[in-house]
């Protein structure tokens, strides 16, 4: 793919829970698939990716802590943070987490979440100034 895609955006994953389950259970070691990313309503980009680690909703439950600053004051911020923590914990029950890389001249690490309840997928890619170890919990692509 030529050009740039946003660092983080909504996408459509051209694979599904059946394939993700095989990877999360260790039946397969990687999944070659693609993402559709909409740059504008008229322009979409298809990006080839390899997913090599998947956490199912049962495997990926987390405890959330949110810090919010609100223009309505500290009390509104506390309430907003509490509701954000609740929503994050609630959505975890329906969230698949995926790690992999964008296929290309240079493999770019990518992190994807898919929330089945909302039928929503969001990806983010490693930025140049981020350390690979803090972004990617596996050996970096090409490093075993």
How would you describe what is shown here?
22% of the residues lie in helices and 35% in strands. It has three helices and six strands; from the N terminus they run E-H-E-E-H-E-E-E-H. The chain has helices spanning 17-24, 74-92, 132-135; strands at 8-13, 31-40, 43-55, 95-102, 108-115, 120-125. The two termini are 25 Å apart. The model is unreliable at 140-144 (pLDDT under 50).
Query: Which consecutive residue ranges, at least 5 long each, have pLDDT under 50?
Result: 140-144
Q: Name the assembly state.
A: single chain
How would you sum up the major sheet? 6 strands, antiparallel, barrel
End-to-end Cα distance, whole Å, is 25 Å
Order of helices and strands: EHEEHEEEH
For the CA atoms, what is the radius of gyration? 17 Å
Shape summary: globular
Q: Report strand order across the widest sheet.
A: 1-2-3-4-5-6
Number of helices: 3
Approximate strand percentage: 35-45%
Return the structural class: alpha+beta
Average predicted local confidence, pLDDT: 85
Number of strands: 6
Q: Could you estimate the helical fraction of the residues in percent?
A: 10-25%
């Amino acid at each position: 793919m030529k050009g740039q895609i946003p660092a983080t955006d909504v996408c459509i994953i051209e694979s599904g829970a059946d394939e993700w389950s095989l990877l999360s259970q260790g039946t397969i070691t990687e999944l070659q698939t693609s993402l559709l990313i909409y740059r504008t309503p008229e322009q979409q980009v298809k990006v080839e990716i390899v997913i090599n680690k998947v956490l199912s909703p049962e495997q990926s439950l987390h405890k959330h802590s949110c810090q919010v600053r609100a223009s309505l004051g500290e009390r509104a911020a506390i309430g907003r943070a509490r509701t954000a923590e609740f929503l994050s914990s609630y959505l975890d029950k329906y969230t698949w987490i995926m790690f992999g890389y964008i296929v290309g001249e240079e493999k770019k690490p990518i992190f994807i979440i898919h929330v089945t309840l909302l039928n929503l997928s969001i990806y983010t890619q490693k930025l140049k100034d981020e350390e690979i170890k803090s972004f990617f919990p596996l050996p970096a692509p090409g490093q075993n």
